[in-house]
Amino acid sequence: MHFQGTSVAANHRGPPHNRKQINNIPLGLVLSCLLLLSLLLLSSGAPPQDSQTGVALTLTPLDSLHSHGSRPRPARLINVQYIVTFAFVCFLYSICQNSYLCSGNCWFLASIGALTSTDEKTKDLINQVIPADQSFSKNYAGIFHFRFWRFGKWIEVVVDDLLPTIDDDLIFVDSKTSKEFWPALLEKAYAKVCGSYADLDGGFISEALMDFTGGVHMEFVLNDEAPAYLWNIMDRAAKSQTLMGCDTYQGESREAVSSEGIVGGHAYTVTGVSKVMSKRNPVHLVRVLNPWGDTEWKGDWSDESSLWDTVSREDRKWREKLDNGEFWISMTNFTKNFETLDICCLCPDFLDRSPGCHWKSQRNFGKWIAGTTAGGSMNNIETFWKNPQFRVRIEELSEDITHEEGAENMLVSLMQNHEKRHRRSQKNYSIGFYIFKVRGESGKFSAEFFNDKTPVAKKSFHNLREVTEFFWLEPGEYMIVPCTKNPGETASFVLSIFSKHETHFEYIDETEENEDDP
To answer: Which fold is adopted by the domain 357-507?
Structure first.
C-alpha cells in the first residue's frame, strides 16, 4: 500500500483540526493503515530529484549531491524520541558548515526563532502550526503534519520524515539540539507549500510569520521614522500572543558583517524587551536573535558590555554571556541598525491599554482580471473604476475605548496571490489601495464618481506580497478600492480590515447600478 502526501486546504477561518486528509482520505485512517501494516509513509516513490529539492539552483557541483546525497529518516541518524519540545531552540544555518547552499532563507529561520522563543502564553501558536500529537516513538509511521495559513485559508500539509542529507549531515535547517528534528520537518512542509527548498531562497520574515498566525501583520519603519511610543507597543506585544522579527539594511555585499557584529540584509528575531535602570536613568532594551546561532551585536548592552555593571543585580539577570546569537541592544541602537520591525499576531488588542478595546477582523476575497476588473491606479482614471470596490461602514466608538499613541482605529491589509506552484516564479505586482468617503450611495461606483473625488486615505504602492496601513477614520461610510499600480494585471487578492469599531464590510456587486449613474 502506498500513500502520497498532499496539501489539503481547509476553507474556514480557524485551524483545520477536523479536516486532516490525504487525497480525501482522513489522516487518522492513513495513520491507522500504516501502523496496521507496519509501513512508513513515503511521499514519493522515487529518490529525491532536483525538481523536488530545487537544488539545481543552489548546489555546486550537482554531482556531489548525486553521488553523496540521500534522504535518511531521523531514526537512522540518531536515537530520537520526540518531534518538539517547548524549550527555546537555536538553529545552525547549514551554510555555516558547508558550501552546498546559497544563504537566502534567513527570513524563514528567523520566523522559526520567533515561533519557538515564546513562552507558555503563545503555546497555542506553536500547537496550531505544529500539532502536538506527533512523535518518533508512539504511533510512529513516518508521517507528520503541519498547518499554515495561506492567502486566507488554513491548509494541512503532510510530509514523510525523509530529510535531505549529504554524508548524513542535514543539508538545510539543522538544530543545535541533536535530537530536535522538528525544525527540519517544519521546513520540509513549508518548502512543499512553496514548491521546493529552493523556493525558500529570499523573502521577508513577515511572510512566514503571517503563514504561522493567520492574523494581522504590522510593519514599522525604523530609524528616524520610528514612532516615539514604539518600545511601549513592543513591550505590550511581548506580553501577548505575538511574533516579532526585524530586518537590517543591505550592506555592500550579501550578508556582510559590520564592525559591530550586525549582518547586512539579514532577518532577525525579536525575542523580548526590558527596561533597566542605569545610573538612575531608565534604558529601554530589545533582545534580538540571529538565526545563525552566532555573530552578535558588539556595542552597548551586548554580552560583554561594561554597561551591565551600572545596573542592579536584579537587572543583571538579563545578561547572558553565551555565543548563541542572542543579544541585548538599546532601543536607540535598535532603530539605527535595523530597517524594519514586523509584528504578527492573532489580534491587535495589545495596541491599546484599555481592557474594553477588542479589535474585530473581517476578510473579503477578490480578483483582478485583465480587461475587466484590473483597472490599475488612479493615474489610469479611465479604467480605475473597474477595480473591485468594497464598502465599509464604521459605527460609533465605545466610550470606554481610549484614544492614545497615534489614535488609529483601522488597519487595512491587502495581500496578492498569483496561485503559482513555485514561490520563486510568483512575481509580485506593485499593489496598494485607496479609501474614499461615501454618503449612502448604492451599487458600484462609475468612472464619473472618481473624476472629482480625492481619497481620504491611501496606501502607496509596493512590490510586496502584502501591504498594510493604519488609519484613523471617523464613523461613517467608506469605499476601499484595492488595485495594482498598472492596469491589466491579473491576480487574486485578500482584503482584510481590523477595527476597534463595530464595522460592516462587504463587496459592492458589479451587477448593481448606482443611483447616481446616468
So the answer is: Jelly Rolls (2.60.120)
